[in-house]
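Hi there, hope your week has been kind to you so far. No rush at all, and the record is pasted right below.
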Amino acid sequence: MYLAYVDDSGSTGHQLDDQQARFQVLGGPIIHDSDYTTLELMLSYELETVVPEDQWESFEFHTYDLFNANNQFSALGADNCRNLLKAVLTEIRANNMCVVFGAVDKVELKTQLYSSADPADMAFRLYLKSLALCLEDKFKEKVRAETGKSELSPDDLVTRMAECCIMIVDDSNKRVRRVIENAFRENRKRVRVFKDEAGPLWPYLMDDLYFGDSKYSLGIQLADVCAYFVARYLAKKPDAEEFYNIIRDQVHLQVAP
């Protein structure tokens, strides 16, 4: 089973042309359940070499503050903070995870005919499209490995079940939560045997989507790290490529308009 973690970047600005948050970005890494424990152990090792004992239980990857060594992270030092972020991205690359995102250029959107569209809604729908394609590719890779075939027939696919995925979303932004719920349920409907109405996310996404507290979810924190650097890369911010390039080959990104 896959776990698709979703966080957003760029939802804080009230103005569409806010240069501090030009891109609305939604998405995160897809983690296979068999990789989760190893990932958790490896990142725990990195953290325990830097994070003081008295901060251990409260530590959370708040990427903006960590990248800038702000607030609670200032005592760690700028080098340690950035090295921790590089360690996260390196582990994502080492585990060959797909990092899936939808993004909207809010400045460009303002010039379009559909300028009143919600950037978060657009970004999440782009994310869902990329996610479905990524999970379909993973399913086909699995079938090729099982069959030894490079070219697959419809029978090869229909006789096998796809590995399912559960989506877990950061619950910190209530407005974005409503947008995500609506878009998800339009694209992943209840299955009806005699009507083809399940939507493009079936059979890959299992059940409803779930919302979690980033403080207690490593996966959501990793989504926060990825979202920050994807948004920073798209906005051509200083130092963006150094971090983005670590996961560049794993990023599946669709950008509008």
Remarks:
- The chain has one domain: 2-33+97-256.
- The first helix runs from residue 33 to 48.
- The chain has a mean pLDDT of 89.
- The first strand starts at residue 2 and ends at 9.
